[in-house]
Design brief:
The structure is a single chain. The chain has an eight-stranded mixed beta sheet with strand order 1-2-4-3-5-6-7-8, sandwiched between helices. Strand 3, helix 1 and strand 4 form a beta-alpha-beta unit. Helix 2 packs across helix 3 and helix 4 runs antiparallel to helix 5. The chain is α/β, with parallel strands linked by helices. It folds into two domains: 236 residues, Alpha/Beta hydrolase fold, catalytic domain (Rossmann fold); 47 residues, no CATH class.
């Protein structure tokens, strides 16, 4: 059965901006430096719609990054039917093309561009990670590309770690705004900033039942979307995911990128990941929020314009950190 992808907390992706570009507005169409074409990722019996972006006029082989989206019904550009439209993944792809790096960004299984059907009620994080691995395997066979790197944002960062652990043929993994703590802990932390103690007690009881595979019972209406029956298997698999253990299991070099004004993944998450992989490079991006756009306000209401305006640029420091690290992998 085809269905919208699983709902958790609506997260997005971020990207930086290129030198010489207007710092107040960003591209909403590909720049001259980027050539884009449709691409299909074949993962098992499914076909996933994707966009391949390559640097115009590139000579010889170039590195390529697979951009893996965050949670919820987030498309290849970092936008969502839930009203989130930062266009961050598209901006990241275009900025990387200006640095000579190709990218592949794709719609997750269950999005409208999915070819084939599947049972959403049985899906786990491993299934979504397998799609990222399939993308890497396809690109590794393409003579145009010198090496493949996984760039996962938010939930996508966890999927990148799992795909690498599964044996994806990649030269490195980049975790952007990735979780370093168990999902249940992160969700509880986010909700504690929004609801009163009585609502949180009801939430805690319902979630304990839900993650045991039981009926959640008395669910506060404000968080009802977190308890959809079709998502129970997925949520249980994600709650069981151990980010520090996963990053330790990755054999390839790792880059951890964390925005300092991110309200959804925190510095504590980045530090836990770094503690598990001390050899990883950790880059903290001043003023960057969860969608990698500049924000000084530390409230969700204050940051919301950056989530809904696709023309606001992603911060250049984040792009530079990602691009420099990918280019430095040359020869590894």
């Amino acid at each position: 059965m085809r269905s919208p992808e699983l709902v958790a907390l609506a997260l997005v992706v971020f990207a930086p901006q290129a030198r010489g570009q207007d710092m107040t507005r960003a591209d909403t169409v590909p720049p001259a430096a980027a050539m884009e074409s449709p691409y299909t990722i074949h993962s098992g019996h499914l076909g996933l719609g994707a966009t391949l972006t390559v640097p115009r006029g590139a000579r010889g082989t170039v590195p390529i990054a697979v951009i893996i989206a965050g949670s919820g019904p987030t498309d290849r550009n970092g936008n969502s039917v839930m009203g989130i439209r930062p266009n961050s993944y598209a901006q990241l792809a275009w900025r990387l093309a200006e640095r000579g790096i190709a990218t592949l960004r794709y719609d997750k299984r269950g999005m409208p561009a999915t070819q084939g059907t599947f049972d959403i009620t049985t899906m786990t994080v491993e299934d979504f990670a397998a799609d990222a691995r399939a993308a890497a395997e396809s690109l590794a066979r393409d003579a145009r590309f010198s090496r493949v790197v996984l760039v996962g944002h938010s939930e996508g960062a966890s999927l990148a770690l799992i795909a690498a652990r599964q044996g994806a043929p990649v030269a490195g993994v980049i975790s952007v705004s990735g979780l370093g703590r168990p999902l249940a802990e992160v969700m509880r932390d986010q909700l504690s900033r929004q609801f009163d103690s009585a609502t949180l007690v009801r939430y805690d009881t319902a979630m304990n039942h839900y993650l045991r595979g039981e009926q959640p019972g008395d669910v506060p209406p404000q968080v009802a979307t977190l308890f959809l029956p079709v998502n129970q298997t997925f949520m249980r698999s994600w709650a069981a995911f151990d980010p520090p253990a996963a990053i330790r299991a990755v054999r390839q070099p790792v880059l951890i990128v964390q925005g300092e004004t991110d309200l959804q993944a925190s510095l504590a998450d980045a530090e836990r990941l770094h503690a598990a992989r001390p050899d990883a490079r950790l880059v903290l991006v001043p003023g960057a929020n969860h969608v990698l756009k500049h924000a000084t306000d530390r409230t969700l209401a204050g940051q919301m314009p950056t989530y809904t305006d696709p023309s606001i640029p992603i911060v250049p420091e984040a792009v530079a950190a990602i691009a420099d690290w990918i280019l430095a992998l040359r020869g590894r």
